Structure formats: C-alpha cells, structure tokens
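Bug report

Summary: structure tokens for ABC transporter substrate-binding protein differ between web form and batch submission.
Environment: batch mode, default settings.
Steps: 1) Submit the sequence below via batch. 2) Compare with the web form result.

Sequence submitted:
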Amino acid sequence: MMHRMIKALSTILVGSTLLTSPAWAETPPNMLVVGFSMSNILTLDPAAITGKETVQVLANIYDNLVGLDAVNRAQVNPQLAESWSVSPDNTAITFKLRSGATFASGNPVTSADVVWSLKRLLTLNLAQASFLKTHGFTAANAEQSFTAPDETTVVITLPKKVDPEIIVQTLGIVGPGSVLDSKVVMEHDKAGDLGSAWLTNNSAGSGPYTLGQWRSNERVILDRNESYWGEAPGMKRIMMRHLAESQSQRLMLEKGDIDIAYSMSAADLKALEKSDKVEVQTNGGSGFYYLAVSMKDEKFQKPKVREALRYLIDYQGLNDTVLPYFGRLRDRPIQTGLFGALPNAGYKLDVEKAKALLAEAGYPDGFSTTLRAISDAPFMNAATAIQATLAQGGIKAEIITGSGDQIYGAMRERKYELLVGRGGGGQLPHPDSNLRAIVYNPDNADEAKLTNFQGWRTAFYDEKINSMVDAALVETDKAKQVKDYEAIQTYYADVLPAIQPFAEVVDSVGYRADIKGLALNPSWSTRLRTVTKER
C-alpha cells in the first residue's frame, strides 16, 4: 500500500508543477519532500562529487569517522569513531571505532573498510582527493599513511608536518571522509574502477538512509536504513525534487506540496518570513562572495588600481540590498568564528579616493573592462551593483554572464578581467581552509594548472604569504598560531590582493512550520535523520 502511494506521489510531483490546482494539500506524514536545484548532481560516488547539492544528498547516506557540528563550527563530533587521539609528536592520529555499526548491507563497519575507502579516494584521484593531497597524502604513500592494526583501530600517519586538527576536520567532510562498504563496492568493480561506475547511481554506506532512486534533473528518493546503527531516522522516506526556479519552490512550500526548500532567492525568502505556515532558518556557510581581478591583465598588476577597486565596492549597500539570506558583510580572508579571524577592516565606498588612486596609476579617466558573473542570484545582482559603483570611479565594466562552467571556466583558464564570484574554502572550520583556497599559490606558472587554488586562478603570487600560510598550519603553540593567522590577514591587506571579499556566505532554508529537528550545517552536510513532522 505504501509502495503504491509513494509511486503515485512521485508521478504527481514529477509530472506537474502543482502551481494551479495541487493534488496534495500536504505531504505524507512519513515522507519528507525537499526541493532544490539538482543541475550540478552528476554522480553519487563520494570520491567524484562536486558542489554542495550532491553533498546534501550524500550526507544522509554515508557516515564518516567524525562529523562537523552544525552549530559550533569549531566542534568535531564522534560518528563511526567513538574517540581519537593525536600522538605526542603530532605525526599520527589514532581512531577507535564504535562497536555494532553496520553498513546498509548488514556488513559490519571495520577499520579495513575505513582504510580501503581512504586508499580508494587517492587511487582514483578524482575531485575529492584534493582535500588530502593538499596535506601530502598520495596514492603512492597511502599504504604507509592508512593502517588498521585491528578491526576497530585506524591509524593515520601524516606524510608531512601539518596541524593534525585539520586532518580530523577533513575526515568530517562528505566526500573525502565518507566510509564505504568495501565488500559491496568491490562486487561491482569493473576493469579496476573500484566500483566507480556502479556508485554513480547506487550507494554503499552506513548512514541513516540508502539510495532508492536517482533520476538526473528530476528526483532522488532515499529510503530509511532499517538497520541503521544510530537513532532511527524520523522519516521513512525522503524525496528530493529538482526545482530550479525559486518561485516554484516558494509557491509549493506555501501550499504544502514540499516540506523544505533549499535554494530560494532573497525576495522569496523575505516574502515567506510573513507566513505563519513557513519558517526560514539562516546559518553560517562556507566561503565568500568576492570581486576578483586577473593579474595576467596589465592594468590589474598595478597595486594602485587594485587599491582603487577596494574603494569602489559598496560593502554595506551590497549586504543590505543584494545579500540578505545569502551573505553577511566580511572584508577579510578568514571567516568569522574561526580562531585567528580579525574584525572587518572597515572598507567603505569612497569614489574620490578611488579616482585619485586611478590617476596615480596612470588612469585619470578610468578605463574599460569586462566583469563576469553567473546568471543566477545573487551573482548578477551583485555584479550589477558593482558595475554601477565602478562607473562612478570612471571604470566602464561590461557584464558577461553565463553558467558556472562558463564563468568559472574562464577563471580556471585565467582568461578574464574582473569577476564576481563565490568561493574561498571554509568547509573546514580552520583558517587554513580559507587561506589555502583564496590566498595560497605555490606555483604561478600557466603550465602548473593549479585550478583548485583561486590564488593561481587570479595569477596572484606572493612567496612571503605562501611561507606564512605554511608556517601557521604547522605551528603547535596555539597562542602563536592565532597571532600568525592575524599577521597573515594584515599582510594580505597590505599587498593589495587579487581577491577582495565583500561578504561571507550564509545559507538559508525555508520549511513548513510543522517540521522539527532541522539544523543547517555550515559544511553543507545537513543530515535529515533528526527531522520529524508534528502532524
């Protein structure tokens, strides 16, 4: 009976926008229906995923050794590991697994599965491997780096000097830290792909849900893992719907056709604030909104030009009008709430100062340039606002818009002039996560192709700041480490960088008022196990 009802609901939800005469007054009491854009979901293999949308799915399917807290960014919580310890010389981390944890298949979760999952990640060398490769882990040293002395013990030996805390935090991220059922995956190994083709649309985790169905750009259905080792999930099923339009999400949420909407515009979220049937939750996110220049361009190689741009951004205006629900004012390269983060520098729109700086740089009448931005909100609105303030200083910026691949593709190829973007790490609650993404550039050569580093994408290279970032990460005296990160931010401001943040990302979600237990996670890995309906 339930199967027939689910099938009927699936047909109705997928086949109709439900905007005129909805067939359901409300969603079933034992099913959670979630709406968001799924256009970036290309695979469900944890080793290969990109983008937060896929993380939102897999956070409910796979467990990690540890989990990052949804409220306190600095807190790491036990998950499959009940405890862990760092060796006195900071060269190894030992995890003790909890007893009784099983995969959805019924196979026990063992240290061998954890070690196999980490080795698989580095062997495949797909998108998520970069998190560990950054800290010296490779397929070549994986055998020595990851060991299982017994069935409940995992030892990670660090291949180079690094703050062990950031490795523990990395293992709390969906993707690099996801633990797979090695037996099940290897049953589907094809020509040595370590089950990658099969995992594109299947799952092998120990999380509260299993993958029931994925139809690209349509829906994902998750079924409750009845043998889940932890507290039983509140919902029997979760249906995630591909809803690209914010207005569709809003209207369906208001009518009760969906329970949660993840990707709505600021205007729709603001409208929902007035409803007594819907609530809006906002929590810290990952990374920044920023204005980036390409230092491959002769104009932007001049420090005075970059300094002028700093004073042609209306920081407060952008955050008041464009970024509610998306960001909050931040003009430093480390997110608030992380240790070592300095207060905002207090930059403000100052057209006259910017004009004087441009004149000193040899551009008394300004210049023409291009400004790239993704066509989605809030990027286009932010770009339009920045275009207007640039014009006040004499800089005529033609906006070029397109998809994420088109806009960031040009940045990865270092073929752009100005760009309004979002990024800069932050998935890990550690300053290095921000700085390594937005500041660091170990090799500025074009052939290096270090596209994971936004510093490389902008062609910003400063040997001193690279050394400062490396030194801060391995500093064992916490008080000195805090001072090191403060010094990096001050120095970064002084060298007039290629990326100027104007806001740090926050995430917002709308949900029906009878939904309880929803807690947005800043690392995108919001787990829906605790969600219930009061009906």
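Above is the batch result. After comparison, the two runs are identical; trailing whitespace caused the diff. The two ends are 21 Å apart (CA to CA). Residues 478-494 form the longest helix (17 residues).
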